[in-house]
Amino acid sequence: MHPINWIIVVVYITYVMVDGIRRAKGTKEIEGYFLANRSLPWWAVGLSVMATQLSAVTMIGTTGQGATDGLRFVQFYFGLPLAMVILGVTLVPFLHGAGVFTAYEYLERRFDAKTRSLTSFLFLMSRGMAAGTIIAAPGVVFSAIFGWDLLWSVALIGVPTVIYTMLGGVQAVTWADVKQMVLIVAALVAVVIVLLVQLPVTPDDALAIAGSTGRLQVFDFSFDINETYTFWSGLIGGTFLMLSYFGTDQSQVQRYLTARSVDEARSSLLMSAYWKIPLQALVLLVGVLVFVFYLFQAPPLLYNPAHETSVRTAEPSAYAEMESRYGSAFDAREAAARAVADARASGDESAAASAMSVFVAREAEVTEIRGEALTLAEQVTGESSRDVNYIIPRFVLDWLPIGLGGIFIAAVMAAAMSSIAAELNSLSTATVIDFYRRWFRPEASDAHYLRVSKLATLFWGVFACVVATFAATLGSLIEVVNRFGSFFYGSILGVFILGMIPGARAVGGFFGLLVGMGTVAAVNFGAPSVSFLWHNVIGAVTVVVVGLTLSLGTRAAR
Amino acid sequence: MDRRDAPPDARQRFRRTLVRVLTIQVIALALLWLLQTRYAG
Is the ipTM of this complex over 0.85? Predict the structure, then answer.
C-alpha cells in the first residue's frame, strides 16, 4: 500500500485512541464507565448502535457478497424496522425505566437469580468468542493482502481498541463509534462515486448488465424455510432475530441504556430503522458495481494473494493453463458487455436482448473457470478459499486513488474497532454487574468496581485477541460456539417476552429457556436444512408456550 | 414505566416517528422493487 495510505490509517488509529483516553478523565464511577451517567444524546447513541452492528465483515465480506451474489442479502434486514418499532414500545421502556446496567439484571427482578445468571453466562460465552472472530475476520484478510503474520494484524486492530475501551469506558466507545460511522459511510459513498466515474459505460448500462446476471434480483417471495434469504424469512425470522439482538443482547442494550431518557433511547433505535436497509443496499451496491468494473478490467483469477501464490507454486502448469483460458474468457465477456452497451445505446431492443444473452453465456464461462481455480486452491491449501472476502480489498488497493484507499482501509478498521469495543464494554459490564458484584463483592466501593471493570475489559480484550490469533486452529471450536449461540438467541428473547406477561413465573422462565434451547438444537441437528433465521422464531415461541404452561401448572398445583 | 404512563405529547411524537419510519421503509422497498423490475426483469 502507498505510504500516504498508511499515514492516513496510522493518523486515524492514533486519533481514535487519544480521543478515547481523553474521555476517560471524567469517568469516576461505574455508572459513568458503563452507562455514561445516562447522559448521551439520541443521535450519538443511534450512530453507536449502527456502528456496532456494522463490522469489518460488512465492509469486506458483504460487499464481496454483493459482487458475487447481488442485492438479495438485503432481505435479511427486512424485519429490522418492525423490530425497532416493537422494541421502542415494549422492551426499551422496561429496561431503561428499570434503571439496570444489564438486560439480564431485569430478569432477576422479574424471575430469579438463576435465570439472570444463566442468560448472562450464555452471553459471555458466545460474545467472548464472537469478539475474537470479529477481530480475526479482517485480521486474516489483512495478513493475506499485506503478507503479515496474523499476530500483527490482530494487534493492529485489537490493541488500540482495548486501550481506548478499557480507559474510556462507554463514553469513549460511543464517541469513537460516531466518528467511525461517519468515516464508514463517507468511504462507501466515495467508492461508489469513483466506480461510477471509472466505468466505461453509463450507470444505466452498468445496472442493466449487472441485472442480466440476476444481481439486482432483490425480492424472493417463495415460502421455502430451507432458503436462507427470502422476503418471508427476512420479514418474519429477521424480525425475531433483530428483536433478540437489539432487545436482549447486552452489546446492543447497553448502547441505548446510555441515552438521556426513554424517548431518546427509542429515537436512537429508530435511527437504525430509518437507515439500515438503505445503508445495507448501498454496501451491496458497491459490490455489484465492483463486479461491473471487473468486466472491463482484467480481474485476478484468485483474489486471495496468499492462495494465489500457493497454487502458483504447487500447481504451476495447471494454474497457468487456467489463467490462459480465464484471459480468453474475460476478453470474450468484455466484448459481450460492450456489445450490450452499444445495442442499448442504438435503441434496438431485440439487438440489446440478443447481446444480453450472449453476455450471460460468456459470464457463465468465466464463472466456471473461476470455480475450477477455487476448487484447486482449496485442494492445495487444505482450507476454505473464502475468496469473496478479498474482492473488495484487492479492488481498493489496486484501483482506488491514493488517499481514498487509505480511507477505505481505515474505514474497515473503524468498522472492526467499533464492533469489538462494544463487545468488550458489554462483556465487562456483564462480568462485573451480573457475577462479580452479584455473587462475590456486593458491597464494595465504586472506585473498586471501576478498577475491576477496567481489568475485566482488559481480560476480555486479551481473550478476544488470543482467540483471533488462533482463529485458524480454533476454527471448529469457534464454529461450535457460534452454532451453540444460535440455539439460545431466540430462546432468550422468549424469556424477555415471558417477563412482560403478567402471569409468568420464575419456574416457567428458567425451564422454558432450557426447553427452548433444546428444541432449537433438536431442529438444528434433526432438520439442518431449516434456515437459521427460523431458529429464532422456534426458540422464542417454544419458551413462551412452555414457560406459560409451567407457570399456569405451578399456580394450579398451589 | 409503561407505554400507558407516557405523556400524551410523547405518545404523539412516537406515533409521528412510527409513521415516518414506515414511510421511509415503503419508499426504500419501492425503490428496490423498481430497480429489480427495470433491470432484473
Answer: no
